[in-house]
Design a protein that fits this description.
The structure holds 2 protein chains of 2 kinds. By secondary structure, chain A is mainly α. Helix content of chain A is about 75%, strand content about 0%. Chain A folds into 2 domains: about 55 residues, no CATH class; about 220 residues, Orthogonal Bundle (MetI-like fold). Chain B is mostly helical. Chain B has one domain: MetI-like fold (Orthogonal Bundle), CATH 1.10.3720. The longest helix of chain B is centred in the N-terminal third of the chain and has 33 residues. Classes of the chains: A mainly alpha, B mainly alpha. The interface between A and B is large, with 104 and 108 residues.
Chain lengths: ~290, ~290
């Protein structure tokens, strides 16, 4: 609600304006609440079913809420191993992505070259390519070079898919660090790598955190890549194991499925909350567009 | 920046060395598969017996355009993209962003949190949730029953509509965030000036707001479409492309041909077409960005 700028306005006109603003606000509130409820229904199923031992497919409040579904999952086969696999796969790939992106972003941000613009354009172009489309040839290639069904090979591929966007974001964050701060390090005789490690990266800590968390979230949720490239049940991350455990069974224990979904989703939701404020509105674009 | 261009004691070549690991990784694991994709698309490679692979020219493509199932997948992909990305996510995202500017703070925060939660959830979880929502014994039919409306087996009668709605549920947050930022960038004086001049709400939207955020609209449409073109997990978890082939979009069709039917060459030809469409969109996107800079 905006207060009228001119105090000289007649009281009646002002109350009319206020009333209209209130009406508009109420209408907007009502419309938003309708959408919010529609979006919340599937989420409500997730939470309510996870607490219901006899959960079915529709939303219903459990008569006697219980954590039995979670208890049933607490074993190595269903929960611990897939989660650990996810952590190894996505953690390793994220570390690789961030390392490569930080190194690449430094010269791209600091030095001039006529190849710089084409390189950045190529990176941006790759950002948009549908990775789904190349999964069939990647599978063929991985069979040929014996990387199929290995966590390391899958991690390398995941890192490569996330890398273009990570380079782009990292470069933009690095551009915001003034060069003058580095010059001190230069006069002290530091080489570029030392300047990057000791001066630039610590200064852009929040930016690095955003790129890291974002890459990790994207990989954690990725289903298609590990689904194609990993075969042994022991190696499957949670994104695929959830499917093999619950997707193919004739009689699905929906309560357990919901409980597992919550366990599997919690890390990314927490991580998102952690960086949400920094992301602000549409950071993905903010970063990309304002390049 | 210019101060560092005279880096002491470093040859200009060596200075660019840090770019090598990233470039290598990209060339090996993205460039390699794309080149390999182009190669196998012109062969008759099958999963069984790689030794008998022959170069077949454009046969795979000719076969695709004569294949009813391929054309079916193209049509379904178009329907899925137009419904869920262009109409659904884009319009709903803009609507939510516009409403949020007028709504009270608690409502705004609550709605934002719920819509974003749907977006942050992993794809496969979203697939299961919306399967439960649309299933015959699921929540949607319960709600329809409460309203005394006829219930349906949605995943059977209208599978493509169900997965499109699922994609709207999952993807709207992105558009909402983009448009919230874009609307926030419009100077308040401009909308106020239009208001003083007596423009109605709709006129302000059409004549002032939309033209001012047209770049965000273009970018958002482009990114939404690219993302929607490659949706696989969501559809796979909900319908597996079925019943029959009635929700089999191109990625699902490609997977089906390459792995379940063991026709790697043919599946890859389809993949290459999808990649080309994606590349085309990317180029348009780059073009839009270039205008901006």
């Amino acid at each position: 609600m905006r207060r009228s700028a001119s105090g000289a306005q007649r009281p009646r006109a002002r109350t009319a304006k206020l009333r209209r603003a209130t009406r508009q606000r109420l209408a907007a509130d009502a419309a938003l609440l309708v959408v919010a409820i529609a979006f919340a229904v599937p989420l409500a199923w997730l939470v309510l079913s996870s607490l219901d031992e006899h959960a079915s497919l529709d939303v219903s409040v459990p008569t006697e809420p219980t954590l039995a579904n979670f208890d049933a999952l607490m074993n190595s086969e269903i929960t611990y191993r897939p989660m650990l696999n996810s952590l190894l796969l996505c953690g390793g790939a994220t570390a690789l992505t961030i390392g490569c992106a930080a190194l690449a972003a430094y010269p791209l941000s600091r030095f001039r070259s006529r190849f710089k613009r084409p390189y950045l354009m190529a990176v941006l172009f790759t950002t948009c390519l549908p990775v789904t489309a190349i999964m069939v040839p990647v599978y063929g290639l991985f069979v040929r070079i014996n990387l199929i069904d290995t966590l390391s090979g899958t991690a390398l591929f995941l890192a490569a898919t996330q890398l273009p966007f990570a380079i782009w974001l990292m470069k933009n964050f690095m551009d915001a660090i003034p060069v003058s701060l580095e010059e001190a390090a230069w006069t002290d005789g530091a080489n570029p790598m030392q300047a990057l490690a000791r001066v630039v990266l610590p200064l852009m800590g929040p930016g690095v955190a955003v790129v890291t968390v974002y890459s990790f979230i994207m990989m954690w949720g990725n289903f298609f890549v590990p689904f194609m490239l990993l075969l042994t049940p022991d190696q499957l991350p949670a994104s695929v194991s959830i499917f093999t455990f619950f997707g193919y069974r004739g009689e699905v224990a929906y309560g357990q499925l919901a409980a597992f979904s919550i366990l599997y989703s919690t890390p990314v939701i927490l991580l998102y909350v952690l960086i949400a404020r920094r992301l602000g509105g549409g950071f993905a674009l903010g970063g990309a567009v304002k390049g | 920046m210019s101060a560092l261009t005279t880096a002491r004691g470093r040859g200009p070549r060596l200075r660019w060395l840090p770019i090598a690991p990233a470039t290598l990784l990209l060339l090996l694991f993205l460039g390699g598969p794309i080149a390999y994709c182009v190669y196998i698309a012109f062969t008759d490679m099958q999963l069984t017996g790689a030794s008998s692979t022959h170069f077949v020219g454009f046969d795979n493509f000719r076969r695709a355009f004569a294949d009813d199932k391929f054309l079916n997948a193209v049509v379904l992909t178009l329907v899925f993209t137009v419904l869920s990305s262009i109409v659904g996510q884009n319009t709903l995202g803009l609507g939510l962003a516009a409403l949020m500017r007028r709504a009270s703070r608690p409502v705004r925060t609550l709605t934002g949190a719920i819509v974003i939660a749907a977006w942050v959830l992993p794809e496969i979880v979203a697939g299961f949730l919306l399967y439960a929502f649309f299933e015959r014994r699921g929540t949607l039919n319960d709600i329809l029953g409460l309203l005394h409306l006829p219930s349906q087996n949605w995943l059977f009668t209208l599978p493509i509509l169900a997965v499109s709605f699922a994609n709207v549920w999952r993807g709207t947050a992105f558009s909402m965030l983009v448009y919230s930022a874009a609307l926030g960038d419009i100077p308040q004086e401009i909308t106020e000036a239009a208001e003083v001049d007596g423009a109605s709400g709709w006129q302000r939207m059409w004549r002032v707001t939309l033209p001012m955020i047209r770049r965000s609209i273009a970018t958002n449409l482009m990114l939404n479409t690219l993302q929607t073109l490659s949706v696989f997990g969501l559809i796979w978890a909900m319908t597996r492309g079925g019943p029959g082939t009635r929700s089999q979009t191109l990625p699902v069709f490609m997977y089906d041909q390459a792995f379940l039917k063991a026709l790697i060459g043919y599946g890859t030809a389809v993949a290459l077409l999808l990649l080309l469409v994606g590349a085309l969109f990317s180029l348009v996107y780059l073009r839009l960005l270039r205008e901006e800079v």
